[in-house]
Amino acid sequence: MSVLNRVLFNVLCKDLADSTKFYKELFGLETIYDSDWFVVLTPKGQANVQIGLIDQMSQFTPRHAWGMHEGTYLTFEVDDVFEVLDRARAMGADVVSEAIALDYGQTRGLIRDLNGMVIDVSTPTAQLAMREDVIIEEVDRDTAIDQQQPGDRDAVSRPVW
């Protein structure tokens, strides 16, 4: 059996330079490979964690991958989902969903990157619960994405300002 050496998620980019700037600023990533059609980013000191950004019109981009991102989203687990959502908002990103505490132990917010890709930004809820500026409260769910699911707790975590 063949040995798996690397898993790399590639994001198709309408504008490679703008997308590179977006991911670097939002998540504090560093460039470990850079060309005119492909960039690889990683968190500092974590070379085994990588995201590829590729010009969607590059000759090296598989033609079958062109178009909208369907059936996929990208997750970044961070130490402070609220801070990242605030930074994304300040950068003009579309915040699809504010941070919500989910039953499986993560507090998740959703944004869209410059290419329309949905990004799940998450922090372990227990980590947030230790903070004095975060409370867990009941929340009304009124959109399809927010509807009660089997096993859900009806709570949201949010910072107290």
Automatic annotation (TrEMBL):
Q: Which residues form the VOC domain?
A: 3-124
Q: Which Pfam families match?
A: Glyoxalase (PF00903)
Q: Coiled coil: which residue ranges?
A: none
Its name, as the record gives it, is VOC domain-containing protein
The species this protein belongs to is: Devosia insulae DS-56
